[in-house]
Amino acid sequence: MASYNKFHHNCYRDALAIAVANSLTSVFAGFVIFSIIGFMAHSTGKEVDNVVSQGFGLAFMAYPEAVARMPGGPFWSIMFFFMLIILGLDSQFVQMEILVTAVTDMFPKIRHRKPYITTAFCTILCILGFTCVTRAGGYWMAVIDQYSVNFHKLVFALAECAGLCWFYGPKRFMNDIRTMMGDKVVESRGFKFWPITWVVITPGLMLFILAFNFISWTEPQYDGPFPPWGQAIGWMIMLSSLIVIPMDWAFFIWTTPGTYKERLHALINPLPSWGPALRHHRQEAADVHRMNGTDFGGQVDYVKKKKDLENGPEPPPHEMMDLNPIPESEDEEEEKKIIEEEEEEEEEKKGAEEKKGSDAEDAAS
Questions:
Q1: How far is the first Cα of the chain from the last one, in angstroms, to the nearest whole number?
Q2: Model confidence at 130: pLDDT above 80
Q3: % pLDDT > 70, the chain
Q4: Which pLDDT score, from 0 to 100, does residue 54 have?
Q5: Which residues does 121 contact at the CB level (< 8 Å), separation at least 6?
Q6: Quick one: which of 41, 88, 33, 292 has its CA closest to 170?
Q7: Is the sign of the CA dihedral 93, 99, 102, 103 positive or negative?
Q8: Which of 57, 92, 150, 315 is found 20 to 30 A from 83 (Cα to Cα)?
Q9: d(CA 239, CA 147)
Q10: pLDDT of 319 higher than 80
């Protein structure tokens, strides 16, 4: 996760590497899937369209049958299910880490109890997962697959993209990247493409996919169509996630003082606590934004804990929603240690560059 990286880590390189790796993996998976389906069509004498339908039966019924017919079938069967186990574990690691980290970041006082929180979440989700291995498991899988994947993730991604690029602003975002990686990356010729992608191309593609999914929407089926009450359960599962977005907006507007216009302005702008966690990084971000014609949205010396409010006026409710993530003055030793580590890394880089330059001069002479 990005929050575990150091502040000046080259996240641009990581983002490109992940995007390329995902694309290549998808192409490779396409070759694997269609080669197996083609093998099944050839073996059974059927057309490809009639070999197998979509769904979890493709992985747990069609593929095992196909690999069992191949030369060395037992070996390929073992490898196939070993791959499924690794894929499932890897997906669970990522999802659980996101869930647990979100909770511990929201409530830092329980961060030292992270093993217990992880155990609790794993236990609860494991119990909920038992529904998928009962005799009605196929129906639950069809409902979850149709109502929990297609729609709400696209809505979340579109809302995140719109909030970042249409309200926070692409120039601000570019200056955030500039703070972490310097002018060399942001001012490069290849980087000019990304603001257009953030503002136009990515939201447009997601809107198109969302509209296409809505137009081509079909209710799930498993051994026949679902009854109306079964479809209602699916829609409730979907809406239980989507309704959080307007509920959060309504809560924010309701609890924020001021006129309606002022509340909307506060809704579409960053909180004073927005920005890097460490104080010297916040100051660095403020300086970079100021030199490039923007502000980073937060306050450099924002209040750190609720107990610090005892000697001063209480800020509006919307400014008190996120007081915990920024370290207090009592954490100055840890912050000083981080600064020293960053300075040592910078010195090592400079030494390596100087050595490389001297070696090149010696080679030239």
A1: 46
A2: yes
A3: 80
A4: 57
A5: 96, 99, 100
A6: 292
A7: negative
A8: 150
A9: 9
A10: no
Q: Which two tokens stand for residue 139?
A: 């129906």
Instruction: Give the closest residue to 118 by CA, choosing from 136, 143, 135, 93.
Output: 93
Q: Which helix (H) or strand (E) holds 29?
A: helix 11-44
- pLDDT band at residue 328, thresholds of 50, 70 and 90? very low
Please write down the long-range contacts of 4-7, taking CB distance under 8 Å and 24 or more positions apart: 6/342, 7/180, 7/276, 7/278, 7/281, 7/342
CA distance 60 to 54: 11
Collapsing DSSP to helix, strand or coil, 221 comes out as: strand
- Residue 307: C-alpha distances to residues 30, 190, 256 (Å): 56, 47, 21
The three state secondary structure string of 70-126 is CCCHHHHHHHHHHHHHHHHHHHHHHHHHHHHHHHHHHCHHHHHHHHHHHHHHHHHHH
Provide the token pair at 284.
Answer: 């660095």
> Which residue bears the tokens 């961060």?
111
Q: And the tokens for 137?
A: 């498991």
Higher pLDDT, 105 or 317: 105
Residues constituting the chain: 365
Pick from 308, 225, 320: nearest CA to 271: 320
